[in-house]
Amino acid sequence: MVTNNVNVHTQERFRFVCRLAVIVAVSLCVMVAQADTAAPTEYQVKAAFIYKFASYVQWPMIPGLVSTRPFVIGIFGKDPFGPSFDQIVRGQTVQGRAVVIKRLPGIEDAGSCDILFISDSEKSNLRRILTVLRDAPVLTVGDMDHFGERGGMINLTTEDNRIRFDINVRAIERARLKAASQLLRLARIVEESPSD
């Protein structure tokens, strides 16, 4: 009985990984075709991942929130994506809402985002940024060392030329967000360091 459950779990995980890989690959193919370039860059792949995370995270219902409000992915700090992120989300929707990319001039604007990518250029300010966003329903994503351990929610890493991600479950739950079990199974779960 246990063996059957393990086999079923392994098969589910394999199917989910395949679906996520196909979705990311299709997004990248569309973007590459539009940009007429040979191969996607690291940040084009990361942009596709960030966009797809939205399909596997549930945000809390907020009274009075207009469902026609755009789904905002913010970028704070030096923008490593260039126009590629805008190309990936052009014409796309998340939970029935049009997706827009916003480059934020200040962290005080981050509360209007659904997802916030915090650039590596802001690593010295990370504690202050996460304090401003503490308990806000904003999915924080980064790609800096120990981002999850310092209180960020999802950290994109590169291992063996592949993009992987760490998830800080406590930070996600504190923001009243809910990550799908399929997403959690693909991630490396990290704990916050008490000192940060």
Structure commentary:
This protein is α/β, with parallel strands linked by helices. Helices cover 37% and strands 21% of the residues. The chain contains six helices and ten strands, in the order ααββαβββαβββαβαβ. The strands form two sheets. Strands 3-4-2-5-6-7-8-10 form an eight-stranded mixed sheet. Strands 1-9 form a two-stranded antiparallel sheet. α1 (2-35) crosses α2 (42-53). The radius of gyration is 17 Å and the shape is globular. The N and C termini lie far apart (43 Å).
Name the CATH homologous superfamily: Response regulator
Shape: globular
Beta-strand content estimate: 15-25%
Radius of gyration: 17 Å
Separation, N- and C-terminal Cα atoms: 43 Å
- CATH T-level fold name: Rossmann fold
Protein topology:
Elements lengths: L1 H34 L6 H12 L3 E2 L12 E6 L7 H6 L3 E2 L2 E8 L10 E4 L7 H8 L5 E4 L11 E6 L2 E6 L1 H6 L3 E2 L1 H6 L1 E2 L7
Parallel strand pairs: 2-4, 2-5, 5-6, 6-7, 8-10
Antiparallel strand pairs: 1-9, 3-4, 7-8
Helix pairs in contact: 1-2
Core attributes:
10 strands, globular, single chain, Rossmann fold, 196 residues, alpha/beta
Question: Nutshell version of this structure?
Answer:
The chain has helices at residues 2-35, 42-53, 84-89, 126-133, 169-174, 181-186, and strands at residues 57-58, 71-76, 93-94, 97-104, 115-118, 139-142, 154-159, 162-167, 178-179, 188-189. With 196 residues, the protein is α/β, with parallel strands linked by helices. The protein has one domain: 3-Layer(aba) Sandwich (Rossmann fold), CATH 3.40.50.
